[in-house]
Design a protein that fits this description.
The protein is mainly α. It has two helices and two strands; from the N terminus they run αββα. The longest helix is centred in the C-terminal third of the chain and has 21 residues, at 34-54.
Length: 55
């Protein structure tokens, strides 16, 4: 989901998005950087592990 859609429709909403590097987004030439995808996955996984330790 695009964060812009949410922020446009919900007043006073702060948004932070994480995503891998993408070139030519929303075109027939769209490409995602695989190593960037792995970095995002590893960061998210570690963040969720640490979050669950706090709960």
């Amino acid at each position: 989901m695009d964060g812009g859609i949410l922020s446009y429709n919900i007043d006073d909403l702060d948004i932070c998005t994480i995503a891998p590097s993408i070139d030519n987004c929303h075109s027939i030439n769209e490409r995602v950087n695989i190593s960037s995808t792995k970095r995002v996955y590893d960061w998210l996984k570690e963040t969720l592990i640490e979050y669950n330790k706090i709960k």
